[in-house]
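Supplementary notes for students who missed Thursday's class. We covered one full example, reproduced here. Read the sequence, then the structure, then the short commentary at the end.
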Amino acid sequence: MNRLPLDDASYQQMMRQLEQRQAPMTERVERMVQFWNGRLGVEDVRKLPRYHPAGVYQYDTRRRRASEPIGYRRSERFDLDISREMRGYNLMHQIVGEGSDAYVTMVDQALAHNGSLLSTTEKLRIGLKPGGMSPEADMASGGANYVFTRWRPDPRGAKSKGEMGFYLKPGVAQRTDTIVYETDHYGRCYGDHVARKHVAAPAQWKRIAETSSNNETILKQNVTLLDNLDCLVLDSPEAKRRMLAVFQQHGITKLPDGRKVEDIIHVIPGAKKGYSGF
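Structure (token representation):
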């Protein structure tokens, strides 16, 4: 699906008519369900496996790992299956200009607290010192509310760019707060900037993953590691050994999807460090 419903003339007309009549919420919901049934060619969108209007809890805090519903609930798009459409690609998060030691330390700190990659404002909220290239500028642009990533081909495949970093499952972009830019906009999201510059279609995401090294995808507040990590690229077997020791120290040998931690740490000798502001 290449267009969002807000770009659809029939959807806009329907919403104007409902607003003019001050239609009750039940009617508005039913009309939108009918619109999406036709748009997706299904009997009832509410029966789709990705239809979760109340949002989905993620595997972030220690209490959540004990099956307690706590933390942020994320709304997700039900009209796309991004895991399928973006197979062979990942969202990469890097620690700017740092080597493997920084990744080992970051995972240790994350697992000791809420298990997440954090935005600048989330770090401030829980009392951590902000990092990255430009936290002050991010506060002004709105980017401080987001975690920064870039689309990349799967680092274990032939198109790998050989970069160190956290490679997240493409399905994390199922979140409705996902904003994708073709180039680096430093997280700018005020005014009408997102409406004008956001790239909405997975077909375009694949293209920029291969042609635009500084494409930018931002996700609000945090991204939980354990349920979203596809693989972690480090630059040496010794770095992998240290990383495994950190996971074991926190009692984690498998991820929620059943994969062993040792199987998701991928070594690329001499992997490139991050070069820009994550």
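Commentary. The mean pLDDT is 87. The first helix runs from residue 9 to 20. If anything here is unclear, bring it to office hours.
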